[in-house]
Amino acid sequence: MSTGPTPTPPRPQGRAEAAELTALRLVATARRAFAVQGFAQVSLDALAAEAGVTRGALHHHFQNQAGLFEAVFRAVDAEIGTELDVVYEAQSDPWAGMKACYHAYLDLALRPDRARILFRDAPAVMGARAMDILMNSGFATIVEDLADLIAHGRLRPLDPVATAHLLNGAVMAQALWLAGCEGGTDAQRSAAHTALEAVFDGLTLPPYATQTALDVFLDSLSEQP
Amino acid sequence: MSTGPTPTPPRPQGRAEAAELTALRLVATARRAFAVQGFAQVSLDALAAEAGVTRGALHHHFQNQAGLFEAVFRAVDAEIGTELDVVYEAQSDPWAGMKACYHAYLDLALRPDRARILFRDAPAVMGARAMDILMNSGFATIVEDLADLIAHGRLRPLDPVATAHLLNGAVMAQALWLAGCEGGTDAQRSAAHTALEAVFDGLTLPPYATQTALDVFLDSLSEQP
DNA sequence: CTAACTCACATACGGACCGTATGTCAACTG
DNA sequence: CAGTTGACATACGGTCCGTATGTGAGTTAG
Fold it and tell me: Where is the HTH tetR-type domain (chains A, B) (predicted)?
């Protein structure tokens, strides 16, 4: 067999692989353009030229500008998902892992190259589907983990599905709000994290639910205007 | 003087009044169009025709489509402001009045003919200025009232400006989130109100800060999925 | 091995739409 | 009453998008 055909051919690149590459190149180029210029300011002509193809190729892979945007949107969402997997694995405790993921989501999703796409343009371009997609990313996993935590007595006996909606809604609200303020000030971002921590405290069993995080946050308001 | 010229002439309508009328007509027509079709789907040709003028008149009053949108945006924001004044006056207690205003803001701003303009299209069209304008609507008044409440011992000794930012940010985050979900379900809306009430509880002095509202909300999650 | 077929992509076309530049006529002013 | 201002209409140029059609390389069947 010597240097026989590898299971993943590296060079030959049949027609299908080449097509997928151009689609990926278009998505990558579009992502950069959408992030810095915004959806409405991006010209498909310029975009295709920058990607080294014509608009014909673009319309072959994506129905229209909104379709291309949705592909970019899903790519960014998926990318955050894989990064969150790393965050989760780094924590030994499942409850700590879940909390770390929500905190990390705020930072990861609000990165300048992502915030505009996810939270500023997506609602206008995709409507309610935008938030639906973001909310349901890894939703099933969250529900499972919550059910486990509740079953093991780590959390109050809440409905896992409703609680997952609550947590996702809370973090999404903070993200939308901060994205609308150009990422927000450092104080605003830390306030969002503290508010999130307060929600987590509320989910734990009574001995842990002291609402200390919210108190600390409110007290800090007295000092730094 | 008999029937001399009234201070607000009802009929004659000089050139200035007529011009203002057409501008108002354009804003009113645009508001309806933006609310139902969304910014990007509105044609200025059709808009001007529906208002009974040409696009030349439109561009005489507004620089471009974004300028017209911003006029509509500010009109909606101002309209909510006057409605909130009524809500505030209906409450005898200043703290109750402030709380009622924030709760009312959620309902008033999320009305179907307003939510899309304020929270879905505005961030894409106007950028960060959108949230800036909404945040600063009546901001000075809120700060004054908070300072009074704190001085009279109704609230914890917090910085009024920072607290006003906190409250406005909280209600704006809830509104943005619900607007992204097509107004949200009834359960989501009541959850937003409950979360808001929890923040209010946290601002009151220790004897009142029992976080009961959040507890009630969390307990309710166990029953209705 | 070759001929037919498929498909990724390019080219060409028609049309909607926007912003500006220019024209016009009524209302105001000295 | 003549000059000026300003509100609005008309006309034009240009950008951009979506589709329809053409083409040539890659794939497959016989």
Answer: 20-80
Torsion sign across C-alpha atoms B156, B159, B164, B170: negative
- A42 nearest nt, CA–C1': D16
Q: Which nucleotide is nearest to B59 (CA to C1')?
A: C19
Question: For the domain that residue B202 is a member of, what is the CATH number?
Answer: 1.10.357.10
The answer to whether residues A149 and A90 belong to one domain is: yes
Give the up-direction half-sphere exposure of residue A85: CA atoms within 13 A in the CB hemisphere: 8
Chain B residues near residue A73 by CB distance under 8 angstroms: none
- Give B196's contacts (C-beta < 8 A, 6+ positions apart): B102, B103, B106, B170, B171, B174
C-alpha angle A11-A12-A15 in degrees, rounded to nearest 5: 125
Can you give the pLDDT at residue B12?
41
pLDDT digits (tens, 9 = 90+) for A92-101: 999 999 999 9
Residue type, A99: K
Residues from chain B that touch A195, judged by Cβ atoms under 8 A, are: 170
Q: Which of residues 53-112 of A touch B (CB under 8 A)?
A: none
Cα dihedral sign for A190, A193, A198, A199?
positive
Residue A100 included in any domain: yes
pLDDT band at A7; cut points 50, 70, 90: very low
What pLDDT, on the 0 to 100 scale, is given for residue B203?
84
Q: Which residues contact A206 (CB under 8 A, 6 or more apart)?
A: A156
Cβ-contact A217, A191 below 8 angstroms: yes
B19 touches strand D (CB under 7 A): yes
Of B173, B203, B211, the CB nearest to A173: B173
Look up the domain containing B199 and give its range: 70-220
- Work out the minimum CA distance from B202 to partner chain A, whole angstroms: 8
Radius of gyration of chain B (CA): 21
